[in-house]
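Give me structure tokens for this 49-residue protein.
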Amino acid sequence: MIDFEEELKKFHPSLEIEEAEDAIYNQDLTDLADLLVKMVKESQTQEEG
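Here you go.
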């Protein structure tokens, strides 16, 4: 029979998964709010100039 407690003690997360998490979380992604703010700023500068 499988001893789940013993198997959990042996478990170590894959380094590839940890590296993927870092790559995903460290990306500077532009979302819709960022795009809208940029568009408003650009339109304001065009109106002024």
